[in-house]
Amino acid sequence: VMTPYYSEETVYSRSDLDLENEDGVSIIFYLQKIFPDEWNNFMERISCKRESEVWGNEESVLQLRHWASLRGQTLCRTVRGMMYYKRALKLQAFLDMASESEILEGYKAVADPAEEEKKSQRSLSCQLEAIADMKFTYVATCQIYGNQKQSGDRRATDILNLMVNYPGLRVAYIDEVEERDGDRVQKVFYSVLVKALDNHDQEIYRIKLPGPAKLGEGKPENQNHAIVFTRGEALQTIDMNQDNYLEEALKMRNLLEEFHENHGVRQPTILGVREHIFTGSVSSLAWFMSNQETSFVTIGQRVLANPLKVRFHYGHPDVFDRIFHITRGGISKASCGINLSEDIFAGFNSTLRRGNVTHHEYIQVGKGRDVGLNQISLFEAKVACGNGEQVLSRDIYRLGHRFDFFRMLSCYFTTVGFYISSMMVVIIVYVFLYGRLYLALSGLESAIMKQARMRGNSALQAAMGSQSIVQLGLLMALPMFMEIGLERGFRSALGDFIIMQLQLCSVFFTFSLGTKSHYFGRTILHGGAKYRATGRGFVVRHVKFAENYRMYSRSHFVKGLELMLLLVVYQMYGDVATDSTAYILLTSSMWFLVITWLFAPFLFNPSGFEWQKIVDDWDDWTKWISSHGGIGVPANKAWESWWEEEQEHLQSTGLFGRLWEIILSLRFFIFQYGIMYHLNISAGNKSISVYGLSWLVIVAVVMVLK
Predict the structure, then answer these.
(1) 3-state secondary structure (DSSP) of residue 587
(2) Some GO term, biological process aspect, for this entry: which one (predicted)?
(3) In b/e form, how buried is each residue of 402-438, taking b as 16+ CB within 10 angstroms?
């Protein structure tokens, strides 16, 4: 098993747990509220009546830190979960090897013998340990562990403690050493593997690297430098936010047998595993994400693997045929930019090189998901940008050429096609509204309606009044409905579906449609995809408006305001929607989209409508927007720096991207041209000079502002 780790949380520190936000809510208080039974059990275990007694005892504080860390998305939780594999192997070996009398005595008596126990028993416990060590190794690839150790970072101490507590754990990291070559001093990079010995880390291997360690994307580079330290025929890739369960670990040897089973023409090279999302109880958003993800990693991937045969690797706990992959370019492509979503390229690579990806539902691994709106949006932005880069990749091109017609279509709709469809939905909303508006402003709409009424052409009247319904919020929830129905019955599914609608899941999914289409479209036009760190903490704080503005201004707020302006102007000048009922029928789904894009960040923000917080947020935002940028001023301190960061992609874009940006921006001038002749000031004059005068007014306003 291999886990890439950078600088995420290992074990929560005392100050992390005790630190209160502006509402007086700390992580430990939050955990007590969402896990009340487990908190009571913990207090009983350490024989404390009150919380104050826990903080007074050093040993209890350490136990408390671990208790909290095993309920977050920490390295400590992942390591604990993966080391269950070793426990399961020892238990299975005991059942295979022990004599009848030893089995009657029990596993614990044999596995942990006292000093005075018989020698034969101790030798059996040594055999169990040896067999488990032969069959299972766990490498955590903590890229900057060496730097953390030198700087005295507590995370390095936490990682060392994990190695001491779990002797089977190995840590791989990159060591930077300055070596003298004649007169020159140059930096040399080594890949190092360490284990714990007598409460210190002991070096096992050191491999000199040919150059700097990180040239491409961070996570795949991290995996690539450590893959040489893995052993065995199968390799399970585990993310930093995963967990495992002992009863699932017992099934691992059944799963590994699948490599020898008949799965069609080709031998399986990646065994897909389902996931259990454990963050669903944290908030309503986490629940939506957990349901959406659960439907994807179960019902979705089952269909992708069989009958469609287009399942790839999605960063889930899949088990790779290690020998197959390390002789065919490894499990992680790491080119900067293009391999942003590096996981899926492992699946592409495997399929292109005559591999076979299967999916198995009888074993699952725990997985944590993002829990706050901003974290979810960052994650979706990263995935959308990754899909934008996949469109340009030669892997997708080759798959498209070499698949048969049906697999080609299946591949398209389950990878980049989903994002292209999302983008087309948003584009169609724009086309529909601008088309309606131009018809209304040019007088064509009233002329067509007049003709239709005169001739009694009711079909034409009906066609002019046709509405566009964009209600993706309900559609996105359908796979979840099916999955919950299959696993827990359709009554439960219906109940959950209704509760999700009441908790505004339609608002959330419509909002995330905006995130996907914006970032995907921008990557297609201009490139510039980059990794976005989402942060995996608990969301127990109110997010300031300035932060939300920086995040959603270009992707949602500006677009929402534009669509709202179009809807208002169409209501004033349109001829089809003569009464309010017709107007509501015609534009209700558009208004839902607009309101969602403008107000979802407030709805899903803790204490989003508390008056004092709104006042403080307004002060903070006005201070930020009136600040001038400068060299070295970060985006969260000044509007100007943020603006330059937002326009960065336009500097590196090509001629094609710039051309499209200009063409798309021309829509505002046509809007201005149409609306000028409907204002009272033009007094019915249709001359082009009216349009020229409107430009003079704009120039005058800009000069006054300047």
Answers:
(1) helix
(2) (1->3)-beta-D-glucan biosynthetic process
(3) ebeeebeebbbebbbeebbebbebbeebeebbbebbb
Rounded CA-CA distance 32/27 in Å is 9
Which residue is associated with the tokens 């065995």? 232
The set of residues, in sequence order, having a beta carbon less than 8 Å from that of 627 and lying 6+ positions away, is: 633, 637, 638, 639, 640
Which residue, chain included where needed, has tokens 């127990």?
Answer: 540
Contact yes or no for 154/12 (Cβ under 8 A): no
Whole-number Å distance between alpha carbons of 233 and 351: 19
- Find the helix or strand (DSSP H, E) in which 34 lies: helix 27-34
Cα separation, 525 vs 658, in Å, equals 8
Question: Quick one: three-class SS letters along 288-353?
Answer: HHHHHHHHHHHHHHHHHHCCCCCCCCCCCCCEEEHHHHHCCCCCCCCCCCCCCCHHHHHHHHHHHC
Rounded Cα–Cα distance for residues 372 and 352 (Å): 37
CB of 81 closer than 8 Å to CB of 236: no
* Confidence (pLDDT) at 116: 47
For residue 2, count other CB atoms closer than 10 A to its CB.
24
DSSP at 237? B
> With the C-alpha atoms ordered 66, 68, 71, 76, is the resulting torsion angle positive or negative?
negative
Q: Are strands 169-181 and 200-208 parallel, antiparallel or unpaired?
A: unpaired
The two tokens of residue 485 are 């129905």
Which position has the token pair 């989003």? 608
Contact 377, 550 (CB under 8 A): no
Tell me the helix, strand and coil percentages in the chain, rounded to 5. Answer: 60, 10, 30
Q: What is the pLDDT of residues 395-432, one digit of tens each?
A: 999 999 999 999 999 999 999 999 999 999 899 989 98
Q: How far is CA 131 from the centre of its chain?
A: 38
Q: Which residues of 121-138 are buried (b: 16+ CB within 10 A; e: fewer)?
A: beebbeebbebbeebbbb
| CA–CA gap between residue 627 and residue 637 (Å, rounded) | 7
With tokens 């293009």, the residue in question is 338
Q: List all residues 6 or more positions away from 679 whose beta carbon is below 8 Å from its beta carbon.
A: none
Q: Rounded to 10 degrees, what is the CA torsion of 208, 209, 210, 215?
A: -160
H helix or E strand, kind and range, residue 76:
helix 75-82
Closest CA to 190 of 209, 205, 214: 209
Cis preceding linkage at 210, omega within 30? no
Give the separation between CA 517 and CA 520, rounded to whole angstroms: 5
Partner residues linked to 3 by β-bridges: 140
Pair 290, 342: CB distance under 8 Å: no
Could you give the 3-state DSSP secondary structure of residue 2? strand
- In whole angstroms, how far apart are CA 284 and each of 147, 347, 474, 521, 605? 39, 32, 16, 29, 11
Could you write out the DSSP letters of every residue in 382-437?
A: HHHHHHHHHHT-HHHHHHHHHS-HHHHHHHHHHTHHHHHHHHHHHHHHHHHHHHHH
Q: What is the pTM of this model?
A: 0.92
Residue 570: CB partners within 8 Å, gap ≥ 6?
433, 436, 437, 440, 577, 587
- Paired strand residues for 173: 192
- Say how far apart CA 85 and CA 246 lie, in whole Å: 7
Low-confidence stretches of the chain (pLDDT < 70) are: 113-122, 465-473, 535
Cβ neighbours of residue 96 closer than 8 Å, sequence gap 6 or more: none
- Do the Cβ atoms of 192 and 109 come closer than 8 Å? no
Q: Which two tokens stand for residue 292?
A: 């959406």
